[in-house]
């Protein structure tokens, strides 16, 4: 299990359990619906914290207590801390991207071992913290939802591992 730090922006130290499924599928959504964040792990996408590849953390922004409500305001250069197994991993946010659930290519880019670059071999530990763009989609008149009631678009904050402390 991993947990993100308390505010200013995180999920308040709540656990981020791994889910052996792709981001935002039914099992991951059930975890999020209970107010936590989920971390897809394995063949569907995602590695563990500190591992080379893309560590994905997904959570609600609007519902279930909105643990990632402040994610859109997280700027480039901000730090995200993940603690797992007594080790704290510090990631530095380097990019922001938008994922469309209606585009397989967009979803593949989000879940890629190198975020945004499907097929590229990872050489460093990275993180993608992702949440819904429900208010933005609704304001644009886009009321499409998938089977888990996810809106079309998700906001992804991408970072690279910058420090590790025991």
Describe this structure in words.
With 166 residues, this protein is mainly beta. It has one domain (2-165): Sortase, Chain: A. It has helices at 26-33, 104-111, 134-139, and strands spanning 2-3, 15-16, 18-19, 37-40, 53-59, 79-84, 87-100, 125-132, 153-165. A nine-stranded mixed beta sheet has the order 2-1-6-7-9-8-5-4-3, sandwiched between helices. α1 (26-33) links the parallel β3 and β4. The protein is globular, with a radius of gyration of 14 Å.
Q: What is the compact description of this entry?
A:
By secondary structure, the protein is mainly beta.
In the CATH scheme, what's the topology name?
A: Sortase, Chain: A
Element order: H for helix, E for strand: EEEHEEEEHEHE
Beta fraction: 25-35%
- CATH class equals Mainly Beta
The count of DSSP E runs of length 2 or more, i.e. the number of strands, is: 9
Radius of gyration, CA atoms, in whole angstroms: 14 Å
Q: What structural class results from the helix and strand content?
A: mainly beta
Shape: globular
Cα-to-Cα separation, first versus last residue: 16 Å
Give the % helix: 10-25%
Total helices: the number is: 3
The whole-number mean of residue pLDDT values reads 85
From the coordinates shown, what is the CATH architecture?
Beta Barrel
- The CATH superfamily is known as Sortase
How many separate domains? Answer: 1
Strand line-up across the major sheet: 2-1-6-7-9-8-5-4-3
| Biggest pleated-sheet summary | 9 strands, mixed
The low-pLDDT segments are 5-11
